[in-house]
Amino acid sequence: MQNQSLNGLVSAKEGAFVKRKPTRARIGVFGVGYFKYWGQFDGLLDDLLKKQAVFIDKIEAQHDVEIVDFGLVDDVTKAYELVPKLNAANLDLIFCDMLTYATSSTFGVIIKSIDTPIVLVALQPDKAMNYSQASTYLQLYNDDICALPEFAGVAVRMGKKVPQMIIGTLYDDPAADAEISEYCRIAAVLHDLKTARIGHIGHPIEAMLDMHSDSTMLTAHFGAHIVQCEAHEIVSQYQQATEAEIDAVKERILDFFDTPDPVSDPISEKLRDSDLHIAAQAAVALEKFIKAKKLDGLAYYYDGPDNSDTRVVMSNLIVGNSLLQGAGFPMCGESDLKTCIAMLIMERLGIGGSFAEFHPVDFKEDFVLVGHDGPHNIAIAEGQPVLRSLKKYHGKPGFGAGVEFKIKEGPITMLSISSTYEGKMKFIIAEGESIAGPIPPTGNTNTRGFFKPDVRTFLKRWIQAGPTHHFALGVGHHAETIQKIADYLKIESVIING
After folding, report:
1. How many beta carbons lie within 10 A of that of residue 405, not counting itself?
2. Which part of the chain is the L-fucose isomerase C-terminal domain (predicted)?
3. What is the distance between the alpha carbons of residues 142 and 106, in angstroms, rounded to a whole number?
4. 285 and 413, same domain (yes or no)
5. Do 166 and 199 reside in the same domain of the chain?
6. I need a labelling partner for 153 at 20 to 30 A (CA). Which of 10, 51, 249, 294 fits?
7. Same domain, yes or no, for 357 and 440?
8. Angle at CA 294, nearest 5°, toward 233 and 393?
9. Mind listing the pLDDT tens digit for each residue in 276-316?
10. How many domains does the chain have?
11. Domain extent at residue 331
12. Residue 188 is assigned to a structural domain of this protein
């Protein structure tokens, strides 16, 4: 099973963390056309193949993906010959390049036989024909959309959904380029979901029933393998950490985080040297553990006897988790595997994905605080993240350093992955805004989240959809992209609209 573990980190640092090597999705491309044209219009076939080459060059120039070019399908025999090649290529996504009109026999058996997502791409070379000098040749050269209805109709007749499609021009079309980029990012998500290794330690805190997961069903729905781990594996790494390793991580932490004086919360203090040392030592242990187990993420919750190394370590992973999340490894407290996968989806889309739940509502300014104690994605922080020493972790054992920041101001997207009575997965998605303003100085993350039409109505609609109380929080508006991922995974989804 492939994975992007710490072995795959790139060297460029972003503050205190080093980003993981980006996922390289594997995308197939095949063009379609109509064989009868080639003997009628000399040179048309060559011109269409050049269009396909331009499309492939466009993808490769703008995205770090692996392209497999399957050439041109222009009759039913070639369509049947292509099916086993597509199935054997281990693709994450397929672009069908609509080069000119093509009969649906070039597509019918493909859509029937392939489970890999297929996107129909209709990018004509000219923004408009020169009608005074138009010819049948030029019309066929620009006939990219002509067969889209036919292909859609045959997909339905084959018992499949109508494929997603991109319509535009081959040159100078930012909207089309943005859609190509979206599908390349979706391919990266699909690639990593089916190859990911997610560590799991312990059980959901206080038996939070909404968060329980069947590891086998997570593999069934997403492809990811859940690696059952033990707390002592991290504790052993903690005990073996050297002072040189700890000092190096301390330096990374202090270079990246602010450590201000306490403000209003009596359980918070200025970061203590002892808490910094424990947090750094735990971060050393956590990074070594993730690397040794070849994990792409971790969901954990584990207590231990008073004053034991187990309790000290497992209650002080917050800073190390936050560094790893910023590097692209979702780390999820309270042993919430479903939210860990939601965070992985957001991270691979390039939009962050921080661990979150709802905090108090501000009925005066009509927003709700969105955040959590514990691990967070510091790569999407607004301003410099803060570290405070906390005398206690509310609702959990232990004490130590807490991470405090808010998400970047601007558009945000939320994704909750819940499970239904029937045992199926469900995506609950919403978009909102992270707005400027102060947050509570409690050593936790909090973002002022504004949602339409108003906070009361939004919360009722969100909750009525049956989410878990945790969700992943990312930057930008990406609800429709995430819903496409749900569709490709054959998972029910709902977008909570304003």
Report:
1. 26
2. 398-493
3. 19
4. yes
5. no
6. 51
7. yes
8. 50
9. 999 999 999 999 999 999 999 999 998 888 889 999 999 88
10. 2
11. 195-496
12. no
